[in-house]
UniProtKB/TrEMBL annotation:
Residues 30-356 form the Aminotransferase class I/classII large domain. GO terms for molecular function: transaminase activity. It comes from Streptodolium elevatio. This is Pyridoxal phosphate-dependent aminotransferase. NCBIfam families: PRK07777.1. Signal peptide: none annotated. Its cofactor is pyridoxal 5'-phosphate. Its EC number is 2.6.1.-. InterPro entries: Aminotransferase_I/II_large (IPR004839), Kynurenine-oxoglutarate_AT (IPR051326), PyrdxlP-dep_Trfase (IPR015424), PyrdxlP-dep_Trfase_major (IPR015421), PyrdxlP-dep_Trfase_small (IPR015422). Keywords: Aminotransferase, Pyridoxal phosphate, Transferase.
Length: 393
């Protein structure tokens, strides 16, 4: 009976760091800046739209690709924000697929497009579900590290990571956890490599509306990319309803059909009453999106100042919910060790980034002193956390 219970492809993927750190927050009563969810809900009128949808009987299976109104709203949203970049609309009937959050979109896309043994090149540190889903698909993960202080993309490293076995690039911009927003130059270089090596690309753009410095440019708008790119977004991050789990994919009809094939056997459909509400949310005026980014920028600034005052090295993020720090100035050298002690030391929970890096000496060296803090919290909470952290030195 020597065979382990857990499928060997999932070796090393026991429990996520978020479970461990959130449990620590619960038992110690510490302020949880570990997991990335807002502590206030999104727009009231959108919440009310869910209540209305429940009462109006949107309570059975929605159509497989998502309700038409939501698919239309997704296509309109892309035109409104990115139409000026490439002028090409997505067809709501064939080029849009609603998913159970971005998480299912990532899983369905990787399971659909990766064959056992295919290499998938991804930016390190990784969002944790990438490693798990690449493994479930039988793919081989190849990391390209983003390094502090700038986390700029090293194009030579990306080029060197591509081999004849590479099938797909997995991109994430704005990037969790570093807060890096890929520039047009970086994206152009990625696009050239993808075209040259005939690679598919999955691009996770869930933080598309949370850019504080610079501009979010969808990779699919670059020359040669529309036909090879699966773009993933999420209502959870854009409208502060992370528990609703409504995400979507935009891609060519062929790519959407491929992703739909796996998606239909993962969940089939989900979120009936949330879908009409998200359609309405996507049509909110520009002022909503501007206000949301401005609000989150202010929160970033509060936490960045607090962390600097506490003596950490702070890498100011250009986007997302997160700020990456280096704990070395506080006399620590291992982020995991630091995060396990932090609740007791000062009543704050954070997440060690080394768990988002490969288990190689080179990657671990970069990741070891890095710790991520979330700032998608009320300002009073961020200020209280900053005061507590200030007691560390
Ligand atoms: C939160 C997050 C997701 C998951 O989004 P859901 O819509 O909640 O499934 C995917 N990618 C990144 C980078 C994220 O931060």
């Amino acid at each position: 009976m020597g065979r382990p219970l857990l499928n060997r492809r999932l070796d090393g993927l026991g429990t996520t760091i978020f479970a461990e750190m959130s449990a620590l927050a619960a038992t110690t009563g510490a302020i949880n800046l570990g997991q990335g969810f807002p502590d206030t809900d999104g727009p009231e009128e959108i919440r009310e739209a869910v209540v209305a949808a429940l009462r109006d009987g949107h309570n059975q299976y929605p159509p497989g690709p998502g309700i038409p109104d939501l698919r239309h709203a997704i296509a309109e949203h892309r035109q409104r924000f990115y139409g000026h970049l490439d002028g090409r609309a997505y067809d709501p009937d064939t080029e849009v697929l609603v998913t159970t959050g971005a998480t299912e979109a990532i899983a369905a896309a990787l399971l659909a497009l990766v064959e056992p043994g295919d290499e998938v090149v991804a930016l390190e540190p990784y969002y944790d579900s990438y490693a798990a889903c690449i493994a479930m698909a039988g793919g081989v993960r190849v990391g390209v590290p983003l390094r502090p202080p700038t986390f700029d993309l090293d194009i030579d490293a990306l080029r060197a990571a591509i081999t004849p076995r590479t099938r797909l690039l997995m991109l994430n911009t704005p990037h969790n956890p570093t807060g890096k927003v890929l520039t047009r130059e970086e994206l152009t270089a990625v696009a050239q490599l993808a075209v040259e090596h005939d690679l598919l690309v999955i691009t996770d753009e869930v933080y598309e509306h949370l850019v504080f410095d610079g501009e979010h440019i969808p990779l699919a708008t670059l020359p040669g990319m529309r036909e090879r790119t699966v773009t993933i977004s999420s209502a959870g991050k854009t409208f502060s309803f992370t528990g609703w789990k409504i995400g979507w994919v935009c891609a060519t009809p062929e790519l959407v059909a491929a992703v739909r094939t796996t998606k239909q056997f993962l969940t089939y459909v989900s979120g009936g009453p949330f879908q009409p509400a998200v359609a309405r949310a996507l049509r909110l005026p520009d002022s909503y999106y501007e206000g949301f980014a401005a609000d989150m920028r202010a929160k970033r600034d509060v936490l960045v100042s607090g962390l600097e005052a506490a003596g950490l090295t702070v890498y100011r993020p250009q986007g997302t919910y997160f700020v990456t720090t280096d704990i070395t100035p506080l006399g620590f050298d291992d982020g995991l060790d630091f995060c396990r002690k932090l609740p007791e030391l000062c009543g704050v929970v954070a997440v060690p980034e080394k768990v988002f890096f490969d288990d190689t000496p080179e990657s671990q060296k970069i990741g070891r002193p890095l710790v991520r803090f979330a700032f998608c919290k009320r300002e009073v909470v961020l200020r209280e956390a900053a005061e507590r952290l200030a007691t560390l030195h």
